[in-house]
């Protein structure tokens, strides 16, 4: 066996903290990626300790595992989900897309001890370039919708690193039910929004995430600064919370010149090398 798997990262436009509560989300895959190379060995597994543990959760074959990635770690771009997906695709390439997502979720729970939903895995596995995925987690229905050309996103690093396994980010509370209901409404409205309208929805989403308790002072200060920056239509924290990237919707590429525009990509790639 000699295989290479390339898995994209993901950005979630809106619909945060909804997947584990049967809500809606609007993510797309990006051109940041993780590459996993798998090569058979005579005995034992070789590679990073965590990567080996993930592999052994799905396969007993002795292999050498090599990882290369430009996905920022702990920044809300799903580096852990990308790794788990790559492992499952490499070990069990004949699974269906949805089965692959669920198996990747299982080993992320088991090995990485992160009680994640299915947003990240589905966003990556079902990705289509230049389209976002409208995901309904009540029935796992996925619809692909063209990303409007005028929607230009940039990611700003809060410089706050977080590890979700050390947080209670997916606990259901009284407010979380209200958040999911209102966030679902924001997702639906986003589908027909102008750029300025979408910006307001991003701002509203962040305020709700603050009330949900998954943000912090450093992120909130950065979001507020960005929301008041000329040429920025809206901004919100992204991912599980407590740090990581802030998603910003900008008027054009010249706004926030120190940051690159987020571009979309397609689904994971699988290649037999020999």
Walkthrough of the structure:
With 274 residues, the protein is of the alpha+beta class. The protein has 2 domains: 154 residues, 2-Layer Sandwich (Ribosomal Protein S5, domain 2), CATH 3.30.230.10; 103 residues, 2-Layer Sandwich (Alpha-Beta Plaits). The protein has 7 helices and 10 strands. The strands form 3 sheets. Strands 4-3-1-10 form a 4-stranded antiparallel sheet, covered by helices on one side. Strands 2-5-6 form a 3-stranded antiparallel sheet. It has a 3-stranded antiparallel sheet with strand order 7-9-8. A hairpin with a 4-residue loop joins β5 and β6. α2 packs across α3 and α5 packs antiparallel against α6. The longest helix is centred in the C-terminal third of the chain and has 18 residues. It starts with a strand and ends with a strand. The model has no long low-confidence stretch (mean pLDDT 92).
Strand content: 15-25%
Q: Return the structural class.
A: alpha+beta
CATH architecture of the largest domain: 2-Layer Sandwich
Helix content: 25-40%
What is the total tally of β strands? Answer: 10
How far apart the termini lie comes to 7 Å
- Looking at how many chains there are and whether they match, the oligomeric state comes to single chain
Query: How many domains make up the 3D coordinates?
Result: 2
Q: Identify the strand order in the major beta sheet.
A: 4-3-1-10
Q: Please mark out the parts with pLDDT under 50 across 5 or more consecutive residues, or reply none.
A: none
Written as H for each helix and E for each strand, in order along the chain, the element string is EEEHEHHHEEEHHHEEE
Q: What's the gyration radius in Å? A: 18 Å
CATH class of the largest domain: Alpha Beta
CATH topology of the largest domain: Ribosomal Protein S5, domain 2
Q: Please describe the biggest sheet, giving its number of strands, its sense, and whether it closes into a barrel.
A: 4 strands, antiparallel
Shape: globular
Average pLDDT over all residues: 92
Query: How many alpha or pi helices?
Result: 7
